[in-house]
Amino acid sequence: HSSFAKNCKQMVKEFAEIPVTDEVKPRVGLVGEILVKYHSGANNHVVDLIEAEGGEAICPDMLDFFMYGFYNATIKNRYLDGTRVSKFKNNMLIRIVNHLRNPMIKALRGTKFGHPTDIRKMAEKASKVVSLCNIAGEGWFLTAEMLDLFDEGINNIICVQPFACLPNHVTGKGVMKALKELNPSSNIVAVDYDPGASEVNQVNRIKLMMSVAFRNMRGEDTTADRSALDSAAPCKTCCGCENKDGK
Fold first, then answer.
1. Cα torsion for 143, 148, 151, 153, to the nearest 10°?
2. pLDDT band at residue 98, thresholds of 50, 70 and 90?
């Protein structure tokens, strides 16, 4: 554990010493269904697309998804039919994981790189928008990730999901209006990924979102672009056609 702490401090130090330019890029958070979010093949290399468009991709920590699963035992015990034994076991898992990654968090605290947010604080953030009883799939954690990105100053978000993923429709697409009311500067786009989906449609929606991001950086009025982005619903057909009417 002590060698891990030493290595973390050294890695942070070396990364901080890497020369960087003063170029300012819009930061784009990537949230959504866990496989599509982290698997470049499943999301058609969305990180490469963001970077090609001049943005900086920000992908939250994968381990927090498992912490969300552990904390759900507390939610179930508090509001549903979860047992105290299950709550106790999962809280112990949270304590163990926090203990193991605490050296990393200490090394990152106060730096420009940021660090993972405690899962209890994530739940507290999400509870202001959705019920914590949304525990199917990514559940309330998806909402929490977007709120956490806002707190880090990241207003541009791509919410990726498999086609017709119900949990993401509820706690992803379903909360976008509430999130935009909390943060009028937010620039969120939901993108469906499916073998039969149109890649052109996906790319165009992301490019439109990036256009809004750059105009926001320049302080320009993006009301019209936001309306276009909100109304540019992905094609609902299952054959991958590019129906301009979105029917």
1. -100
2. very high
